[in-house]
Amino acid sequence: MADASDDAATYSQKRRSPRCLFRSSRQIESTTNFAAANSSTCAVWGLPEEIVFHIVTFVAAPTTRATVLCHQIAPLCRASYRALLNNQQSSASLWDKVLREDYGVSQSMADSRRSCKRLRRCPVERVRDAHVLIQDNTEIAYFYLSEMVQSRCKGDLTRSKMCRLLDEYGPHLRTNTVVSSGGTYLVEVCRARNVKESTILACVKELVESRGAQVDVLTRESPQSSQTALCVAAARGMSTIVQYLLQVHSASRDERSSGRFRLHTAPKKTISFRFQTALEIAEMMKDAESKEGATAQSLVSLNHCIRLLREDNRI
Q1: Which of 49, 71, 162, 292 has the highest Cβ tally under 10 A?
Q2: Helices H, strands E: what count in the chain?
């Protein structure tokens, strides 16, 4: 029995000896290195720049691809950080393509400007400068657009005037980005005053079809004010715009909005809503207008919006 116990103790010591642990750790380390070597061969940042750009195109909208590359892919590991941000020579064509496709600046335009070597910018820095510039231009263009929208003079907002404004500060603007005041281009146009509905529809079509505006982007003016273009159009009874957003671009009926709208029958009174769908908002507006003595003729467009929002089948 003593011999058997000694053999068992010796066996347990061998199992727990540092040498055995060292061997197992080396095996784990070699396995990890083997897996890392195999994974590095199929890493995204190791692919050709053209393929990397097309991959990022599927996960990010224009003018946001640089953000995905810098803040989502580059921080994954040291290899990705070196490949995308540190090694300027290997990733130069990728950043030049981002600069050309998203910001409208080509490499030839950047090289045509004479500058000393100390002031010469690398591709990543040129993309950063272009991104800051497009953010500033988006804010400036939105400010002037809001001035046109809120003007009391008729004819201040037209499709041609809006196009000239966007081309002056664009043509590459971040129309789907919420600006510093919390608004979006599409919702701001739908709020236009003293403008015909046909003019607003023409501006909406221009933003959606030619400027890449998305119809379901919410504003963020405040915790009590967050609206979509469909919500604003439904509350104001603009049936042609509601029909266009629903049938042509499949705007979401289930998106909920919050805010306050002025009544057409009694302009001094407003109705507030919180986390309501476009259909619920239109019905609330109809009830409030009816209580203020609105005629059946004045509720025709609002009733049309309600019928459109109640339809289940979309064209």
Answers
A1: 162
A2: 15, 2
The dihedral over CA atoms of 37, 42, 44, 49, expressed in degrees to the nearest 10, equals 110
Q: Is the separation of the CB atoms in 124 and 96 below 8 Å?
A: no
Tell me, what's the pLDDT at 231?
95
Alpha-carbon distance of 69 to 54, in angstroms, equals 12
* Helix 2-16 vs helix 18-40: crossing angle, to nearest 10: 40
3 state SS for 164-203: HHHHHHCCCCCCCCCCCCCCCHHHHHHCCCCCCHHHHHHH
Token pair for residue 128? Answer: 């950063």
User: Phi and psi for 179 in degrees, rounded to 5?
Assistant: -75, 180
Q: Within 13 Å, how many C-alpha atoms sit on residue 75's CB side?
A: 5
Nearest to 127 by CA among 109, 154, 100: 100
Write the DSSP symbol of residue 312.
-
Predicted confidence (pLDDT) per residue in 241-260, tens digit: 999 999 888 899 999 999 99
Vertex 225: Cα angle to 222 and 227 (nearest 5): 130
CB atoms within 10 A of CB 178: 17
pLDDT, tens only, 45-56 = 677 777 888 888
CA dihedral 96, 101, 105, 107 (to 10 degrees): 30
Token pair of 198 as six digits: 């046909």
